[in-house]
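Review form for a predicted model. The reviewer records the input and the model, then writes brief findings.
Reviewer: anonymous (R2)
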Amino acid sequence: MEKGTVKSYDKSSGMGMIGRLSEADVKFFADSVIGRDRLSLASGDSVWFEVDNIKSLHIAINIRKA
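Model under review:
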């Protein structure tokens, strides 16, 4: 698991970006946010997540508020 900060999250489109300290930012989709955190997630929130490499793209999965 990695720790990062939500840089942006558009609830209407269900997409956002998470900033990481050591590497490039990663995109995420609302269906990758675990449980009720999906409803309250906002820019600036600290999160724990994993990174999945799909076709050379880095996508955050299993996202939980820290």
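Findings: The chain has one domain: 2-65.
Further findings: Residues 2-65 form a domain with the OB fold (Dihydrolipoamide Acetyltransferase, E2P) fold (CATH 2.40.50.140).
Recommendation: see findings above.
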